[in-house]
Amino acid sequence: MNDYLRPIRDVDLGDAGLVGRKAAVLGALLNAGFPVPDGVVVTVNAFDRALAGDPSADVSMPADIAARLAEIDPALRDQSLAVRSSAAEEDLRDASYAGQYLTVLHVKGERELLDAVRDCWRSAFSEQVTTYAQSHGTARASRVAVLVQRMVPAVCAGNAFSADPVTGERGQVVVNAVSGVGDLMMSGQASPEEWVVRDGEAARRSTGQGAITEEQARAVADLARRVEARLGAPQDIEWAFDDDRLWLLQARPITALPDPPPVRVPIPVEVPEGFWRRDDYGSRVPWSPMRRSIFMDVYNATRHHMFQYSFLAGVEYREVGGWMYTRMVPLDGLDKIMERVSEIVAAVRSDDAWLLIDEWNERGQDALATKTAALRDVDLGALDDEALLRHVSVVLDLVEEVHETHFRLASASMFLVGEFGLLVRDLLGWDVRQTMRLLSGGPGKTTEPALALAECARVARSRPAVRKLLDDPEEALSGGLADSDAEFAERFAAYLRDFCHRSVGVDLTEQTLAERPVLVLGLIRDQMNRPELRTAGLLEARDEAVAEARALLAERPDTDRERFDRALVRAQAAYPVRDDKAFYTALTGGLVRYAVLELGRRLARREQIGREADVFLLTIEEALAALGDGEPRRTLVARREGEREWARVNPGPPVYGEPPAGWGGGDMEDKFSRLPEEAQYALRVFGWVTSEFQSAQGSAGEPENGALRGVAASPGTYTGPVRVIADVSEFGKLRPGDVLVCPETSPEWSVLFPCVGALVTDSGGLLSHPAIIAREYRVPAVLATGRATRTLRDGQVVTVDGQSGVVETVE
C-alpha cells in the first residue's frame, strides 16, 4: 500500500520493527491460517511523520496520512472497527505492556478513525506507559504502530492461557470469559468466569453467568494450544465468538510464567512395624533430602535425652513415602526399666537438672554464643573448596553438639518447671495457668529479639528522615537509608547480625530473616505507630503473682514457704531456657543453610546443577561428593524434585499402625508404689509436664454457632481482623493489630508479637512455644483449635477470648 499503511495479511514476525509486535504476530498467525480479523496497520513511519522528529511535540494527524487512511478498502473502512496500538516493545516475554497502550472500539466513519489513530499515538506518551517502561529499564516507550481491524460483533469474549499462569503447569489451559466484548474484562468492568481445560475435559472453576459453554471452552483451549505450538512458547491469547465462529484477537507470551511443576515420580511406601505419627509439628511439607540427610540421624541420636525422667527410651524418626513419621519408643524389657529407675534415682539425688540449668546460665550459653558468632562471621565466598569443606564439617559437628545440649536442657528445664508446678498445686491448689504467672516476664531470648526491634522502631520514630524512608522499605534498603542516617543504618545492620541469622521455617530451603531485610524494615515501620513494649510491666505482673502466692502461704509452716521459695528460684531460672536454647538451635540451622547454599552456588556455577537452590534436593553427602568430583547431578536433582512433588500431593495418613496398650491396668499402681521414692517423684513430675504440655491434644471441638474452641493459653479479649500466616514467607502480610492465625509458632516468630492483637493456632499446648510467647507479650491466645487456618480467612473480624478459649466471628 505504502510506507505508512500495510495490510495485516502482508506482515510477518520479521516486520515487528515496522508494525509493532502485536500486529506482526497477528499477521504471521493470519498467514498460517488462524482466524484473525482482517485489517491494516498504520506503521511506525506514520508515527515518526506525525512527530516530525520532535518527540516533545503534540501529536497531530498529518494530512498525507489522513489521505492514506481515507483510501483503505471501503469494505473495511465502512464497518465498525477496533483500533489498537501496536508497539515494538509490546508483548515481549519479560514485558507484556498489557493494558498500557490505548485501544478504541466501535470506531465508525473517517473522522472517528482519524481521532482513534491519533489517540493511540498519544498513548505512547501517557504517564502509565512511561512509568511501565522505566520500571523495565527503558527510558520511554517505543515507537507505536496502530492496528485497524474489523470489529468482531462478540457475543462472548475473553482471554486464555495455554499454561496455568499461577502454577506454571503446561498440561492445562485456563480460559476466562465474559458475555459481550472482552474489553469489559480487561478493564475490570466485568468479572469473568474461569474454565480449566485438561485432556479434553473442560471444568468451570468459578461461578459465572454462563458466558460460554463447555464446548466453547474446549474450542478456545484448542486455539490457545495451536497458537503456542506455532509460536513455540506458552501464550496468553485474546479471543471472541460472534454468532458463527471463534476469532483470535491477540497473542503474546505469558510473562513471569513459573517453572512447570516437576513430573511426579512415585516413591515406594514401606511402612515399618509399630505405631507411627506423621510429624506435622516438625514439618507440614515433605522434608527436603538435604534436611533429612543432616537432621534425621541427629534427632534419632539426641532426642532420647528429653525422656531422662520417664520410662520412654526416646523418639524414632523414619521417612515413609517421602514424609517424616515418629514413634515413641518404650524401654525394652524389665532390665532396661530397672536400669532407668537407677538412673532417675541418681539424677534426682545429684540434682542433675539444676546443675545443667545452672551451668547453662553461668557459662554454657555464653560459650555457645561465642562459637556460633565466629561461624556466622565467616566469609564463605572467600574460602577455597578445601576450606569450605572444613567449614561444613565444623558446622555439622556443631549441629550434633547443639541438639545434644538442646534436648538435655529441655529435660532439665521441664523437670524443674514441673516440680514447681506440682508444688504449687499441692500448696496453693493453683492450675497451670496460675502457675505460669509466677514464671513469665523475665529476660530471655523469647523477648530479646522483639525488644531490640522495638528499640529500632523507637529510634526510627524519632527521626523524620528515617520515618519517610521506611514508607518504602525496598527503596530505603537500596542505599537511601545509609545516606540519610548512618547511625540508624548501623543499628539496623547490628540487628540483622545479632538476631536474624536463625532458621525460621521448617526446612533449610526457607530463607532466614537476614536474607529478607526488606521484611525486617517493614516490621520496624509497622511498630513505629504501635505502643512501646513495656518489659517492666511484664515483670510487675510476675511480681504481683509471687506476692499473691506468698500471701496465701503466710500462715503455712516455714518449711512450706522455704520449699516454695527454693522451687521458685529454680523454676524461674529454668523457664526461659526452653526458648533460650532454641535460639541457638535455630541459629545453627541458619549456619547450616548458609554453608549448604555456598555449596549450591559453586555447583551451579560449574553447571553441575541448574541453580543453587537445587542443592537442597541432594543429600549432604552427595553435595560434598559433587564438589570434589565435578560430575553433573542434574538428572538426580530432577528425579528428587519429582519425588518430592509426588510426596507433596500424596501425603501419608496421620498415623500408621495401632497405638500400643496403655501403661495402666493390672497391678501397675502397686508396681509404681514399690519404686524408690525419687523415681516415683520424678515420674509424677514428668507426668505433670506431659499432661499439661499435651493438654491440647484432641481438645478442639467442632465449631459451635460459628465459634472455634481451643486451649485458653494467654488471658485477655481482643477483636480484630484475621491474618492467616502459614510460614515465614508470609510474614509481610501481617498488619498492626491483626489477629495472627497460624498452624504453630516457634520462638523465631516473636518479632511479630508487638504488632499482633491476638493469636490463634491449630496446635500447641499451655507449655508450648506459642503459649510462652503470647504470655510474655500479654497477647490473648487460643491454641489447638485444630482448624483455625482452614476455617478463618484474611480480613474476617473475630473476637479472641484467651480466658475461655473461644474464637467468635464478628462479621
Automatic annotation (TrEMBL):
Annotated PEP-utilising enzyme mobile domain residues: 735-805
GO MF entry, a single one: kinase activity
Keywords: Pyruvate
Chain ranges of the Pyruvate phosphate dikinase AMP/ATP-binding domain: 58-199, 209-258
Protein name per UniProt: Pyruvate, phosphate dikinase
Taxonomic lineage from the root: Bacteria, Bacillati, Actinomycetota, Actinomycetes, Streptosporangiales
Gene (UniProt): ppsA
